[in-house]
Amino acid sequence: MKTITETPREIPVVAETDVLVVGGGPGGLAAALAAAREGADTMLIERYGCFGGTITQVGVGSMSWYRSAGTVDVEGIGIEFETRAKEMGATYALPGRARAGSVLLDTEMFKVVADTLVKEAGIRPLLHAKVVDTVMEGDTIKGVILESKSGRQAVLAKRVIDATGDADIAAYAGAPFEKLPKNELMGVTVLFSCIGVDREAFYAYLKANPSTYKDWGETWEVETSGKEDHLPTHFIAEPFARARKEGIIPADMPIVGSFGPVSDTGGSITLNMNYMYGFDSTDTFDLTRAEIEGREQSMYAIKALKAFVPGFENAALKNFGMTLGTRDSRKIIGRGHLTASDVREEGRCEDSIGIFPEFIDGHGVLILPTTGRYFQVPFGVIVPQKVENLLAAGRIIAGDKIAHAATRSMMCCALTGQAAGVAAAVSLEDNVDTSAVDVSRVQAVLKKQGVRLD
Ligand SMILES: Cc1cc2nc3c(=O)[nH]c(=O)nc-3n(C[C@H](O)[C@H](O)[C@H](O)COP(=O)(O)OP(=O)(O)OC[C@H]3O[C@@H](n4cnc5c(N)ncnc54)[C@H](O)[C@@H]3O)c2cc1C
Q: Helix axis angle, 109-121 relative to 77-87, nearest 10°?
């Protein structure tokens, strides 16, 4: 490939902080809150204009859809996201087919919930700033370089947490990472929402046409443990099959979809109806193709909804997510590594930073936590190799593909974020590098912050 050399230049250091978190999704938000609540001067940098990551930018509000009466759930900041959202009127009850005890976050209002949490904790926010490189001293990270409307600037930090979803910071810093081949990555999605939906008619249709997770198997190859098969699902396939048959949508367009609730005013959010394979979200050309393809598929989905789903006859597009949704890209190679066996067989470890229910959704596996089984998440999976004073949070933590299908869940992202924030703060208090932090001290602070470890 042809290259050019950029001219070196002096850039201003616009801030210095103890803990710098890059990325304001469930992982980064939890990391910043945990570090700030432990007394660390904490800054949170985000490339877009709001915090919340996939919740607010993509429009995914289903943070707790896995939950049922039998779930032994995570405890900590992830649950706080949900309870604060409820208190602030930023949740919806899910329609009939949803899992017991779960709610859907209002993905617009969650922007305000996140702002409130950031403000209350005294975190220094910086929006509209994309981190484009790291400042290194040997193998120790010392800060980041960002690009924004203010130009190219640096922020220096004693500890950095990578919560970018794509392990951007680990990659810039030279920490080893892995990424599946493009054709094995989980699919990407453009979510959308509609207005003009007749809630009563739509909910009556759902009631009259129940579907279960067994129906997923007719569309995808999905392995379950058997107990999932009879459970109700928030998923529709039949209207799209019919639309394909009748030529309303192209015969080879694999639209199916899960739907969210409908508001009092006829708004239907979190319409998740395309799942596109073969895109690498660390490649801008792929991102471009996927955004355009996703919007095209969404418009066909609306045509099918209007034609065949009662309640949607007069519906219209309200908006697309601010950005394409990515489920899977770079993951750090960590000091520890979670495996399929850990998440399927109730893995236990000495260095637990939290528990997560046996919930696996992706790479052809669907296991729902209906029986009280759970696994422990080890500290080592948030510690990258080679680079000092950098920690990972959210969906970039170390593990194999089936482990990722569990830990990518937003609640688990908040779990690893909270642990990264606490570990950063404790390492500063104890004046040791992050790789040398005393895990029992991290565990004690996590417990104090309300995290269940065993
Ligand atoms: C379509 C879709 C549906 C899903 N459904 C569910 C579901 O129902 N339930 C569930 O629990 N999970 C679901 N997931 C998975 C879950 O949403 C993600 O795994 C989770 O949000 C990841 O959290 P995160 O904090 O690691 O990253 P993200 O939520 O991706 O947040 C990363 C943040 O970092 C910012 N950022 C990235 N790069 C930079 C940079 N260089 N500089 C500055 N900022 C940067 C981004 O703008 C973003 O705000 C879904 C995902 C998708 C895409």
A: 120
Cα 431 to averaged position of ligand 1 atoms, centre (Å): 32
- Rounded to 10 deg, the angle between the 284-308 and 238-245 helix axes is 90
Superfamily of structural domain 13-179+330-448:
FAD/NAD(P)-binding domain (3.50.50.60)
The count of C-alpha atoms lying within 13 angstroms of the C-alpha of 177, restricted to the half-sphere facing its C-beta, is 27
In this structure, are residues 255 and 300 in contact, taking their beta carbons and an 8 Å threshold? yes
pLDDT at 434: 97
pLDDT surpasses 80 at 100 = no
What is residue 181's three-state secondary structure? Answer: coil
**26 CA closest ligand 1 atom index:** 25
CB 439 within 8 A of CB 379: yes
Token pair listed for 49:
């204009």
Residue 142 has pLDDT above 70, yes or no: yes
Is the CB of 235 inside a 6 Å radius of any atom of ligand 1?
A: no
**Would the pTM count as exceeding 0.90?**
yes
Instruction: Show me where the domains of the chain are located.
Output: 13-179+330-448, 184-320
In the structure encoding, which two tokens stand for residue 447, read together?
Answer: 């417990």
d(CA 434, CA 19): 12
Amino acid at 222: V
Place of tokens 């395309």: 274
Q: State the pLDDT at residue 213.
A: 83
- Residue 218: is its pLDDT beyond 80? no
Q: Are strands 192-195 and 316-320 parallel, antiparallel or unpaired?
A: antiparallel
Mean pLDDT of the chain: 95
261/82 Cα distance (integer angstroms): 16
Overall average pLDDT of the 112-138 stretch: 98
- Please name the residue that has the structure tokens 């001290």: 441
Q: Is the CB of 59 under 6 A from ligand 1?
A: no
User: If you search the block for the tokens 């355009």, which residue do you land on?
Assistant: 292
Give residue 97's pLDDT: 45
